């Protein structure tokens, strides 16, 4: 008999960091449970998006099923390419969310009559997803970080959306496993209560850095283990990228910096538009300074969508267009839908420094002993993990990005490079035992 697991919240091959977390979560469970059968939620608002989001993982033999609780964007078949959504879009999504909330609450109810009513609202394929739940050996929350809120009116629903699958698993007495996540801050009181109530029922909870550990201890009164981000266990591919990069203008005789950026809405800030413009302008100034110092720059699209908010190409091209023609002679732009997370990691090994807004680009680079600077956004992950590694001076908040600060960090890294690399080596030695302990602890649960 197969041991069936469903890995949530969803598979997103276009986000190489999330892809790595899904793949590494599965690899952990291959060491925990014999005869494993893996199910993943597909993502995307249309068939083209769905295939882009699952094509690489589908090739590994995993089975895809539709989400029971769909994102309002997906349910409305929205393919908007705006970074900042209009009020009309939010109202439309809000209507979808309210109707979904009512029907899905019935599915997680203890009363069978409510279950039947809720089930009647599902599509034929969604009903098959629901029928899988009682058969699961475990529902696995992949490593990552999505449980954070900043006081917005819709925060509680966002938490409900992410926690629904755990609630449904608890309804059918299925073990829920929360692999190392970053949790917090939770500035919406209802969202905070919901998170505590749901995750407290899990068979195993872990966080990926001490900032989240302290948050859970002080704010939710939960003491949980710290386990490294699963991205640190990813192995780079065996591909040789020398020719690949040379064809795209990479000059290996020069010092090279890779930069990953992302669009960002600066939710919760009154001056969000100003902060976003400053973020891009300061990166452009930073590039100019580093080119003058002798570096070549590669602007790398680490995540490719499908929504505009997750499409790094938009931010990268804005920066590229903002730099002068003289600077552009030393800048290349890289995007490739065909590369997976293991290949992206190997590619970062060819650089002297990586500056990453996408934190998993930082992790991939560190895996390859490429020193990195992190631009932190969205919760505790970047600050906490860089501090745990022992390099807290090399992380900067996205709201405080400035060319001067980044230039100072590069110069500090140049001076302290050997010490930085030694800390990475020490951390990687620690990782081996951490993974062994994780597998051992999970085996005890089953």
From TrEMBL:
Keyword field: Coiled coil
Give the coiled coil ranges: 403-430
The protein's name in its UniProt record: Polysaccharide pyruvyl transferase domain-containing protein
Q: Do you know which InterPro entries this protein is assigned to?
A: Polysacch_pyruvyl_Trfase (IPR007345)
Q: Keyword Coiled coil on this protein?
A: yes
Q: Which organism is it from?
A: Flavobacterium arcticum
**All copies of domain Polysaccharide pyruvyl transferase, residue ranges:** 15-377
């Amino acid at each position: 008999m197969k041991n069936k697991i469903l890995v949530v919240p969803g598979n997103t091959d276009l986000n190489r960091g999330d892809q790595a977390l899904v793949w590494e979560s599965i690899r952990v469970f291959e060491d925990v449970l014999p005869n494993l059968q893996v199910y993943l939620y597909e993502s995307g608002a249309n068939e083209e998006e769905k295939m882009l989001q699952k094509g690489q993982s589908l090739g590994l033999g995993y089975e895809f099923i539709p989400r029971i609780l769909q994102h309002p964007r997906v349910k409305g078949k929205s393919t908007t390419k705006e970074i900042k959504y209009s009020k009309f879009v939010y109202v439309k999504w809000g209507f979808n969310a309210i109707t979904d909330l009512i029907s899905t609450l019935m599915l997680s109810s203890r009363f069978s009559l409510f279950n039947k009513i809720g089930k009647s609202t599902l599509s034929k394929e969604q009903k098959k997803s629901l029928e899988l739940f009682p058969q699961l050996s475990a529902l696995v929350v992949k490593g990552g970080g999505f449980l954070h809120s900043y006081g917005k009116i819709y925060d509680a629903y966002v938490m409900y959306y992410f926690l629904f699958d755990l609630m449904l698993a608890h309804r059918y007495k299925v073990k829920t496993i929360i692999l190392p996540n970053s949790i917090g801050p939770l500035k919406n009181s209802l969202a905070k209560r919901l998170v505590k109530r749901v995750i407290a029922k899990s068979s195993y909870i872990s966080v990926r850095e001490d900032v989240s550990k302290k948050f859970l201890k002080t704010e939710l009164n939960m003491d949980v283990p710290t386990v490294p981000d699963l991205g640190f266990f990813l192995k780079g591919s065996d591909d040789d990228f020398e020719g690949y990069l040379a064809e795209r203008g990479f000059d290996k005789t020069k010092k090279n910096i890779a930069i990953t950026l992302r669009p960002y809405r600066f939710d919760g800030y009154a001056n969000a538009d100003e902060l976003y413009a400053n973020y891009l302008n300061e990166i452009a100034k930073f590039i100019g300074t580093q080119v003058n110092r002798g570096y070549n720059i590669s602007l790398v699209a680490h995540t490719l969508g499908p929504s505009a908010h997750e499409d790094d190409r938009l931010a990268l091209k804005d920066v590229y267009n903002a730099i002068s023609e003289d600077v552009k002679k030393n800048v290349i732009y890289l995007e490739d839908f065909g590369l997976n997370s293991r290949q992206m990691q190997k590619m970062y090994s060819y650089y002297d420094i990586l500056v990453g807004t996408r934190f998993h680009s930082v992790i991939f680079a560190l895996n390859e002993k490429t020193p990195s600077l992190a631009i932190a956004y969205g919760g505790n992950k970047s600050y906490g993990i860089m501090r745990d590694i022992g390099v807290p001076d090399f992380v900067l908040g996205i709201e405080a990005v400035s060319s001067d600060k980044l230039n100072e960090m590069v110069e500090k890294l140049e001076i302290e490079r050997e010490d930085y690399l030694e800390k990475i080596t020490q951390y990687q030695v620690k990782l081996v035992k951490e993974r062994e302990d994780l597998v051992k602890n999970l085996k005890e649960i089953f």
